[in-house]
Structures are given as C-alpha cells and as structure tokens.
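Researcher: Go.
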Amino acid sequence: MTMLVYLVGLAVVALIWFLHLRTARKAEAAASWPTATGTVQSSAVREKVEADSEGDSETAYYPEVSYAWTVNGQSHTGRRIQFGETPRFLRETAAQAVCDRYRAGASIPVRYDPANPAEAVLETRKPGPSRAIVFTVVAVVLTVIAGTVVEAF
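Model: Structure:
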C-alpha cells in the first residue's frame, strides 16, 4: 500500500511538470504564429479578495482584456493575455499597467494558431518554473506524509 502512495505522488509530480512544459512549449510556438490585427473590446482590472498562505485576506488584482480578430473572414473573440495562469498582481497599478497596453478600442496584434485560428494570445512570454517547483515540493511533502501514515498502520 505504501508503494501505491509513492506511485501516486510520482504521478502527480509528473503531471505538474507535464502541464508546465506543455504551457511553456505553447508559448514558445506562439511566438512564431502569424498575427492578425485585432481590436480591444474591453480592458479592466478585476479586484478579488483572497486568502494568503497564512489564512489572512489579501487583495489581488487581475487584468482582464477582451479582444476580437478576424482570420480568413471568420471573426473570433478571446480573453487570453498569455499562456498559463491569468496574470495576478498584489498592486493595482501593476495590473493597470497591463490594461494600459490594451486600451478599449485600440488596434493590437493578435497571435493566432494557424491550425486553429480561434486559439490566440497577446503575449508569448514563457511561464517561469517557480509555480511548478512550489507544487512539486508540496506534492513531495504530502506524499512523504501520506506514505508515513500508511506505513504506521
């Protein structure tokens, strides 16, 4: 039974890194996708009160951008700024700086997947590994704890 716990933990770690690497590859591929001229439909900062790691509340700010573009006569809309997580900031001014790059009504370059023009992105920055590292550490710690508990019984 202990071996099963460790195998599940290993599978979780493998999944974490698979998802991270897939997102990084997607961002890298998107850098060479063609661009279409799009129009920003809306751009705003969303404020959300969340619990931090110690259970205290903190306010996070998320830039939300909606845009439209046309490829081969087909209209599309999207909200993805970058691959991976939606950008999250603890300072409203930082989130606003993203929105300022994409003001409502502005013409912007939209990178779209030539094989699926409905899939698009505005920025092609690759995500860093910090989140995957944190999730890996948490998964390993929880796996060791679970394996120890199972061994005790």
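Model: The chain has a mean pLDDT of 90.
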